[in-house]
């Protein structure tokens, strides 16, 4: 493959030498995708190269040592194609599915170039590489990956994450130490530009991860400001899971004549996720999810997506009635709590996360329906965050578009593993039959489902209808009704307030304590009971007489919808807690203490 020398100008300028402004993307037509832009026409991609090992890239030995420590042997397709081009200094626009290794495809070239620069004794007080991300969670995740692969060269490569809750004064002091790599959202980047605390005069590499979301999350003005501050001859790398009009706008601003890498999904990749759809009424959602979780028809870790924040707390309180532990993840919680929740989930502390990804419906939200509670605009669950070993993605509420569905189910079946996606769909004739548990977003479920099926069929996916034998689960219906009656609107509001207050305390007041005592952080739980409703102890146990004649398997007709989860590492804290349950605290118990058990009474 012949390569061209890098262009002198990396930005598209008009006749007045001013960067072209970003145009708002026009909405696309189609069921379920009313306000989402169409995908771009695909440009020819470069021919794939045969690379059997990371050593073929000619990377620094310290970098190869970190790669070997992580157990990585053969690079993925996007890494095979992107890493050589990035090392040559070419602009890249890479489109690959979630979990394909896009992050490592730009991290390794950045570290390698910095090491080469330090080896040639070229030093500068400016930032070498800037990584832009749409959310704080993704910024923290990428920072950890950088830290992992710079383990053997920490003195030569310094990384700084600006997408934290630290004050501007603290961040300015950290920038004064001249980090080599800065990771931030566009808003946090522009916050330091007027004060000149962030020096981009000698910037060499710019990476925009999840490029299609950077503009979708409302960073248009920040991106325009950032373009004016960039120097010439900046190598730009854009990574995205989809090619949409937002990516085209960023490509015109940051790149010129980029190489487009379009890595299609193979049928083998598609078969790793089994997709099912269950058509049911609104109250039957709660009935089915109770049966699925309580009877363990699906084994392993589950991410449950719901429509909004209220919905997440309603489902959590519903689970509490049956003694089912779960934790909530939404935009109202402090960023430190969200990051710790994801980390604990990846370490198998929690098995169920109820996620409300509200940024995916921000385009359809009416002004009069917006809540007064301030939400974090730089928050996203369905994109960017690396959830590990997820057995099932359960769409309790169907998303509003086929693209959102694709990104949601991308949380499972990652890195060569298998997974399962199960979605509840409300037919039009059953909408609003149960008004107290109905959400407006489910009104067009059938239209959205048709769009999803059409989109998935084009990619080689097959979405199967799964019909539960409702006669077998009717015996559980009265329990479901008792639990739903206890979860009132007042209870949901109180639980929402209590959870937010508790998480604020954990996030702020205990932050310094956790920095000094990191082992205590693993004992902090996010799945504790809110206790906003009256708990009915008898609902926690499932008596045998409620089970069908064929047992648990008879609920789904013996077809085996259950997914045997991955055998991850067991959490030591949870294992020790179970082992010591019921034992007296404080070392010597009452039964073993002779002073306490001694009796002076004569027999």
TrEMBL record:
The keyword RNA-binding applies. Residues 52-80 form the DEAD-box RNA helicase Q domain. GO terms for molecular function: ATP binding; hydrolase activity; RNA binding; RNA helicase activity. Its main location: nucleus. Residues 83-261 form the Helicase ATP-binding domain. Belongs to the DEAD box helicase family. DDX56/DBP9 subfamily. This is RNA helicase. The lineage of its organism: Eukaryota, Fungi, Dikarya, Ascomycota, Pezizomycotina.
């Amino acid at each position: 493959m012949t390569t061209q020398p890098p262009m002198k100008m990396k930005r598209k300028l008009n006749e007045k030498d001013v960067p072209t402004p970003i145009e708002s993307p026009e909405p696309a037509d189609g069921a379920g995708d009313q306000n989402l832009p169409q995908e771009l026409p695909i440009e020819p991609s470069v021919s794939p190269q045969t690379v059997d090992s990371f050593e073929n890239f000619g990377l620094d030995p310290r970098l190869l040592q970190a790669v070997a420590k992580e157990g990585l042997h053969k690079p993925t397709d996007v890494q095979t194609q992107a890493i050589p081009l990035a090392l040559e200094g070419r602009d890249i626009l890479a489109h690959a599915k979630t979990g394909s290794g896009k992050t490592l495809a730009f991290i390794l070239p950045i570290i390698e170039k910095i090491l080469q620069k330090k080896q040639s004794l070229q030093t500068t007080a400016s930032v070498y590489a800037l990584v832009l991300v749409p959310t704080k969670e993704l910024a923290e995740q990428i920072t950890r990956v950088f830290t992992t692969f710079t383990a053997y060269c920490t003195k030569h490569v310094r990384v700084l994450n600006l997408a934290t809750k630290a004050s501007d004064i603290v961040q300015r002091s950290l920038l004064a130490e001249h980090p080599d790599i800065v990771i931030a959202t566009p808003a946090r980047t522009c916050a330091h530009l007027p004060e000149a605390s962030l020096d981009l005069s000698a910037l060499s590499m710019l990476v925009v991860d999840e490029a299609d979301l950077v503009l979708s999350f409302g960073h248009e003005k920040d991106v325009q400001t950032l373009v004016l501050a960039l120097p010439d001859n900046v190598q730009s790398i854009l990574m995205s899971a989809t090619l949409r009009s937002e990516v085209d706008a960023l490509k015109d601003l940051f790149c010129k004549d980029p190489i487009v890498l379009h890595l299609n999904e193979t049928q083998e990749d598609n078969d790793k996720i089994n997709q099912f759809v269950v058509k049911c009424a609104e109250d039957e959602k709660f009935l089915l999810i109770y049966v699925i979780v309580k009877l363990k028809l699906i084994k392993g870790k589950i991410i449950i997506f719901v429509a909004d924040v209220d919905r997440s707390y309603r489902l959590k309180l519903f689970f509490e009635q049956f003694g089912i532990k779960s934790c909530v993840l939404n935009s109202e919680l402090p960023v430190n709590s969200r990051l710790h929740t994801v980390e604990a989930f990846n370490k198998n502390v929690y098995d169920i996360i109820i996620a409300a990804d509200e940024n995916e419906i921000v385009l359809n939200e009416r002004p009069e329906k917006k809540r007064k509670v301030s939400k974090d605009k730089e928050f996203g669950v369905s994109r960017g965050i690396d959830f590990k070993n997820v057995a099932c993605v359960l769409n309790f509420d169907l998303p509003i578009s086929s693209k959102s569905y694709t990104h949601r189910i991308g949380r499972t079946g990652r890195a060569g593993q298998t997974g399962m996606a199960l979605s509840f769909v409300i037919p039009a004739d059953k909408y609003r039959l149960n008004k107290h548990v109905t959400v407006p977003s489910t009104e067009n479920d059938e239209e959205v489902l048709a769009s999803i099926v059409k989109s998935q069929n084009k990619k080689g996916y097959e979405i199967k209808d799964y019909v539960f034998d409702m006669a077998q689960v009717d015996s559980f219906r009265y329990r479901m009704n008792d639990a739903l009656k206890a979860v009132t609107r007042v209870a949901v509001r109180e639980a929402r307030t209590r959870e937010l207050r508790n998480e604020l305390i954990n996030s702020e007041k205990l932050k310094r304590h956790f920095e000094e005592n990191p082992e205590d952080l693993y004992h902090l739980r996010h799945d504790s009971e809110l206790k906003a409703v009256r708990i009915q102890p008898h609902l926690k146990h499932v008596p045998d007489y409620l089970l069908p004649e064929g047992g648990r398997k008879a609920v789904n007709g013996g077809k085996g919808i259950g997914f045997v989860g991955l055998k991850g590492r067991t959490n030591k804290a949870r294992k020790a807690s179970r082992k010591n349950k019921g034992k007296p605290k404080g070392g010597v118990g009452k039964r073993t203490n002779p002073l306490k058990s001694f009796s002076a009474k004569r027999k």
